[in-house]
Amino acid sequence: MGVFQIESPAMRGLLRMMTARTLEEVAQALALIRPGAAEYGSKELFVKRLRGEERVTYAHPSLEAILGDSRGVCIFQEQVMQISQAFGDMTLAEADLVRRSSVKYSGRSDHARLRGKFLLAAGMMGLTDAQREETWMMVEKFAGFGFCKAHAATYADISYRMAYLKTHHTAEFLAAMCSAGAGFITCRRTWKKRSVGASRCGCRR
């Protein structure tokens, strides 16, 4: 409770599943919880591969250079742009349109054009129809609803520091949190429910 970005039940559950210990793992978890990654099923796939329950595979061998650090799963916006450039023969501007979710921001005509260009270029690289569709689906579903890596890393750094403070300076941390009314589960909400305020938050410790 009270730790920036990682106090929600969904995030706590994901961190437990990942047994996250490092800043990089917290950053990956923060990216995986986003709607784009969730819609594509990246969270479940990533955790299975992290635990060794599923083998890391790629729709095409060339994807390993882009997705190798994330076990073959697209979780960051930069990866969307890299895939769009490498497989779709797109400019940076076009790749950015894909990243921003082309239907929402640029209209259906641009979306259809970008999809056609991607599938054609990927076909010229030797990808089968199934590989092209799988790769485009991964990019399209993720686009616009994910974190860039720098964003996730910055959030992870703040979360890590706050977790340290809560662990080693618990009373002071919780007192400050309750005073500010901050957090996913606020002290004000707890106060209204039970009228025990600080003791409910653990500040009396």
Summarize this structure briefly.
The chain has about 200 residues and is mostly helical.
Describe the fold and architecture.
There is one protein chain. This protein is mostly helical and about 200 residues long. Helix content is about 70%, strand content about 0%. It is built from 14 helices and no strands. The protein is elongated and about 60 Å long. The model is unreliable at about 195-205 (pLDDT under 50).
Keywords:
single chain, 205 residues, mainly alpha, disordered C terminus
Task: Explain the layout of strands and helices.
Layout: H1 9-18, H2 23-32, H3 35-40, H4 42-50, H5 64-67, H6 77-88, H7 92-99, H8 102-106, H9 108-124, H10 129-142, H11 149-168, H12 170-180, H13 187-194, H14 197-201
Helix pairs in contact: 1-2, 2-11, 6-7, 6-10, 9-10, 11-12
